[in-house]
């Protein structure tokens, strides 16, 4: 179970290393009900409202978030004194996403990941004990490493869901932009 969570986070972080994800962060962050200051909302874009490409700030938040999402699983994997640090970063990471109240996102996923992580890494110990069964190890390596890696290299052959490339596209930004333009007409 720990291996599955670690793989999900690491592949999700890798999938966010693209030029689309800063657009997702710009929209998600600027639409947050907790970002009340209009200047902060507009700072997510290069030149609001004439240029809605993500600003340097949005790009930094996006890439920083991807690094954090890749970092806390590594801390959890190390275990020991790194476990509480990894758990705190993981809770803050998912709390940020939930606080933005993103549209078209299964927000219950964030609650599940927090609960599963606190249970598996907090309550049942920090590290990654390893797998004793060679068959299970082979299945997990295939499903959690080989298939996603192949899907990242050949996205035309593997579904983005199976390849764990959740943020490889730009559909949330496109939909938001469409509705923004539609309502201005």
How is the secondary structure organized here?
Blueprint: H1 2-15, H2 21-30, H3 38-42, E1 45-47, E2 51-54, H4 56-78, H5 82-99, H6 108-123, H7 134-153, H8 171-184
Antiparallel strand pairs: 1-2
Helix pairs in contact: 1-4, 1-7, 2-4, 4-5, 5-6
Mean pLDDT: 83
**Largest sheet, strands/sense/barrel:** 2 strands, antiparallel
Distance between the termini: 50 Å
Provide a count of the helices: 8
Choose one word for the global shape: globular
Q: Could you give the order of the helices and strands?
A: HHHEEHHHHH
Work out the strand percent.
Answer: under 5%
Number of E-state strands: 2
Helical/strand content category:
mainly alpha
Enumerate the strands of the largest sheet in spatial order, edge to edge or round the barrel.
1-2
State the share of residues found in helices, binned by percent: 55-70%
- Low-pLDDT stretches: none
Radius of gyration using CA atoms only? 18 Å
Description:
With 185 residues, this protein is mainly alpha-helical. 65% of the residues lie in helices and 4% in strands. It contains eight helices and two strands. The protein has helices at residues 2-15, 21-30, 38-42, 56-78, 82-99, 108-123, 134-153, 171-184; strands spanning 45-47, 51-54. It has a two-stranded antiparallel ribbon with strand order 1-2. Strand 1 and strand 2 form a beta hairpin. The chain is globular. The mean pLDDT is 83.
Key attributes of the depicted protein:
single chain; mainly alpha; 185 residues; globular; two-stranded antiparallel ribbon
């Amino acid at each position: 179970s720990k291996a599955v969570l670690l793989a999900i986070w690491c592949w999700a972080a890798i999938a966010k290393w693209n030029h689309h994800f800063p657009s997702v962060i710009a929209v998600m962050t600027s639409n947050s009900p907790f970002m009340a200051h209009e200047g902060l909302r507009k700072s997510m874009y290069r030149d609001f409202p004439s240029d809605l490409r993500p600003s340097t700030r949005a790009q930094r938040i996006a890439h920083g978030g991807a690094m954090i999402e890749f970092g806390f699983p590594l801390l959890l994997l190390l275990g020991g004194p790194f476990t509480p640090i990894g758990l705190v970063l993981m809770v803050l990471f998912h709390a940020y996403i939930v606080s933005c109240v993103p549209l078209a996102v299964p927000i219950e996923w964030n609650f599940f990941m927090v609960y599963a992580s606190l249970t598996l890494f907090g309550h049942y110990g920090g590290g990654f004990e390893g797998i004793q069964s060679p068959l299970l190890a082979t299945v997990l390596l295939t499903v959690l490493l080989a298939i996603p890696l192949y899907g990242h290299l050949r996205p035309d052959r593997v579904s983005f869901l199976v390849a764990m490339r959740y943020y490889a596209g730009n559909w949330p930004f496109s939909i938001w932009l469409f509705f923004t333009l539609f309502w201005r007409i």
